[in-house]
Amino acid sequence: METNYLDFLQEVKGQILQSRYRAARLVNRELLLLYFAVGKRLSEKIDAEKWGAKVVEQLSADLQKQLPGLRGFSNRNLKNMRQFADVYSNIPIGQLTTAQLEKADSQKDQIVPLPTAQFEGMDLDTFLSVGFTHHILLLNRCGDWTERWFYMQKAVANQWTVDMLDWQIKARAYQNRDQTLPNNFAATLPETIRGTALHAFKDEYLLDFINVEADDERVIEKGIVQNIKEFILKAGKGFAFIGNQHRLLVDKDEFFVDLLFYNRQLKCLVAVELKKGNFKPIYAGQLNFYLNVLNDQEKLPDENPAIGIVLCKEKNDKTVEYAFQNIHNPMGLATYQLSSDLPEHLRNVLPDPEALKKLLD
């Protein structure tokens, strides 16, 4: 009886969550259609009537009077709607209906293509699954359609928030899409997880939550620990934080790993050593020692070998290659940037628009 009930409970729970997810997607699509339609008509009227720039501000104020408590139609957002409609004027999304979207949504694996050379590769389902705030961020931060489409697909697949999308753009994920960190994974990891490991770690980490001028390892470590949730979100999927200055005891000698994580997808411990300045070969030897101890003392029988990552300010790929040769533990080398390292134009974060998922209180 109890087992049957618990199974039934999980079944109902799954149906509720699936329904909520589909409802949220349909709400997002309906909002995009609405914003596109409003932006299109606004643009047409401004061009036809030769209205001045203040008409948008006036329209926002009058809508608020007509519909007290209306959200999402501020002066700024109306301008965003016009921009959205102007850029995607050649996409026939304004002709779609909610019924058509619901039908497409019920066919989970269906891709609805939009055959237009200007927007090569686009499919309707992905485009309409991206939030309006995400769309505006992409329009203002990405130079062309190919780059925007890359981020759209990633945002939908990984359920990126606006903040995460903003960070990925600042970290130049599109420009670095084919890059992987220098590593020895091919010679040290089981083939079953090798590809997963290559995608689990980045070549460069943007620590934009640490705004310090001094390049000090302990200051950086403290900044990561204080912002560990944000660091894990940016690190990738499956990471869990175990601790910093993780103590290793070898006979009577103590050693400390700067940051220790566990990755659920890789099923292994991940040791991260923070180093200021340029990479030095001695760092590989130190990390290799830590991995030996972790594998001997802390790795569980069903886990994969621990992976080590040296996180430093700069690197020479050839030096890293020689340093990793003949090391039998898997390790890689990534660099980091602090907030103070960024050019001025990359420090400006686009303000989040008002909440766009509720039109009325």
Topology summary:
Elements: H1 2-49, H2 54-66, H3 75-87, H4 98-106, H5 124-129, H6 132-141, H7 145-158, H8 162-170, H9 185-188, H10 191-200, E1 204-207, H11 217-226, H12 228-235, E2 239-250, E3 253-263, E4 268-278, H13 281-297, E5 307-314, H14 317-324, E6 331-338, H15 344-347
Reported by name, the CATH topology of the largest domain is Trna Endonuclease, Chain: A, domain 1
Instruction: Tell me the name of the CATH class of the largest domain.
Output: Alpha Beta
Coarse morphology? elongated
* Domain unit count: 2
Structure class: alpha/beta
Distance between the termini: 44 Å
Order of helices and strands: HHHHHHHHHHEHHEEEHEHEH
What integer is the average pLDDT? 82
| CATH architectural grouping of the largest domain | 3-Layer(aba) Sandwich
User: Which regions have little confidence, pLDDT < 50, spanning 5+ residues?
Assistant: 97-102, 107-115, 343-361
Q: Taking Cα atoms only, what radius of gyration do you get, to the nearest Å?
A: 25 Å
Counting DSSP H or I runs of 4 or more residues, the number of helices is 15
The proportion of residues in beta strands is: 5-15%
Outline the structure in words.
- The chain is an alpha/beta fold and 361 residues long.
- The chain folds into 2 domains: 2-129, no CATH class; 185-344, Trna Endonuclease, Chain: A, domain 1.
- The protein contains 15 helices and 6 strands.
- The protein has helices spanning 2-49, 54-66, 75-87, 98-106, 124-129, 132-141, 145-158, 162-170, 185-188, 191-200, 217-226, 228-235, 281-297, 317-324, 344-347, and strands at residues 204-207, 239-250, 253-263, 268-278, 307-314, 331-338.
- A 6-stranded mixed sheet has the order 1-6-5-4-3-2.
- A hairpin with a 2-residue loop joins strand 2 (239-250) and strand 3.
- Helix 11 packs across helix 12 (228-235) and helix 13 packs across helix 14 (317-324).
